[in-house]
Amino acid sequence: ISSLPTEKGWHPGNLYQYQGFWHLSQHLQKILTCQNQFEARDSDIILVTSPKCGTTWLKAMAFALVNRTKFNPKSTQHPLLSNNPQELVPCLEFAFESPKPNGVDSSPLPTPRLFSTHLPLVSMPESVKKSDCSCKIVYLCRNPKDTFVSLFHWEIKLRTEEMRSNLLEETFQNFCRGVSLYGPFWDHALGYWKQSLENPERVLFLRYEEMKEEPGNQLRKLADFIGCPFSKEEESFNVVHQISKLCSFDHLSNLEVNRTGKLSYGYNNSAFFRRGEVGDWKNHLTPQMAQKLDQISKEKWGDSGLTF
Ligand code: A3P
């Protein structure tokens, strides 16, 4: 474990590098505990993202999908109408915190248990990495330019006014050299991408852009992968469309709970909804910055087949 050479005002917390990825110091103990103590079940479904790649959206989709018999997506009592998706799917590395930050206790969760995590593949719990474990991993990735812009807007919220000067350039330089939460972003994605090619039964790789383009088809893909495909009857009742509408940015971001509510561990629910679009980077990055990110993607992902 090595710490980041102190850079004035980089982040309100200290970053430490562990197994090649950067983490907030206050998360490290939780990550270690999770690595050693989490006992995966074959029926578990683990949603993985780099921060700002659409975690909230994927949580909503997977929750609605897995629970669609219990909670009709059109029901006025659906949990997504009164809870931020972050609350409905516990985060793996914080499920071992005591006292629980958001009341998460993984043991009584209904089967299949749904978890989310930002952990890179190398730091996944030992029980998940075992060759005889057949739990499912769903990785959602996003193009590096929009991911960076979204991350930058998130960073702004964490800073005091005086720490905001020159923030875009500073955050950009750090992101490019791999120093971002759970970064390097490119290594994070590449690890899961390779696994999805080698072991497609266990790892499904999704792209934010494709979910925006054709949410219905991506939902079907997700449903097939996690073993709960849509039946002919459900197709005829348009359940796919109902779920994608329920989980859409416009719908979720305008719900009262997501406009005014707070997560039990402090963040405003609204912080997880900003623009929800593809290509917002054009409004924030200079051509040189965009070029630089493209160049890094080329270098890092090379001929792996991972492109955006
Ligand atoms: P932007 O900042 O580009 O708007 P995460 O959930 O991993 O923190 O990612 C947050 C990003 O996903 C934000 O991107 C947010 O607006 C977007 N987002 C949240 N909910 C979404 C939804 N239902 N559909 C599409 N994008 C969504």
Compressed to H and E, one letter per element, the order equals EEEHEHHEHEHHHEHHHHHHH
Q: Radius of gyration in whole Å, from Cα?
A: 19 Å
- Total number of strands: 7
Structural class, by secondary structure, is: alpha/beta
Give helix % range: 40-55%
The best one-word shape is globular
Roughly how many Å apart are the termini? 32 Å
Please state roughly what percent of the residues sit in beta strands, choosing from under 5%, 5-15%, 15-25%, 25-35%, 35-45% or over 45%.
Answer: 5-15%
Biggest sheet architecture: 4 strands, parallel
**Largest sheet, order of strands side by side?**
5-4-6-7
Structure description:
This is Sulfotransferase. Residues 42-305 form the Sulfotransferase domain. Belongs to the sulfotransferase 1 family. It holds the Pfam family Sulfotransfer_1. Its EC number is 2.8.2.-. This protein has 308 residues and is of the alpha/beta class. 41% of the residues lie in helices and 10% in strands. It contains 14 helices and seven strands. A four-stranded parallel beta sheet has the order 5-4-6-7, sandwiched between helices. The longest helix has 15 residues, at 144-158. The two termini are 32 Å apart. Mean pLDDT is 90; it is low at 5-10.
What's the short story on this structure?
By secondary structure, the chain is an alpha/beta fold.
Topology (SSEs and partners):
Blueprint: E1 2-3, E2 15-18, E3 21-24, H1 25-37, E4 45-49, H2 55-66, H3 85-88, E5 114-117, H4 126-129, E6 136-141, H5 144-158, H6 167-176, H7 185-198, E7 203-207, H8 208-213, H9 215-225, H10 232-236, H11 239-246, H12 249-253, H13 256-260, H14 287-301
Parallel strand pairs: 4-5, 4-6, 6-7
Antiparallel strand pairs: 1-2, 2-3
Adenosine-3'-5'-diphosphate (A3P) binds at residues 49, 51-57, 146, 150, 153, 247-249, 252, 272-276, 280.
Family: Belongs to the sulfotransferase 1 family.
Organism: Corchorus olitorius
Enzyme class: transferase
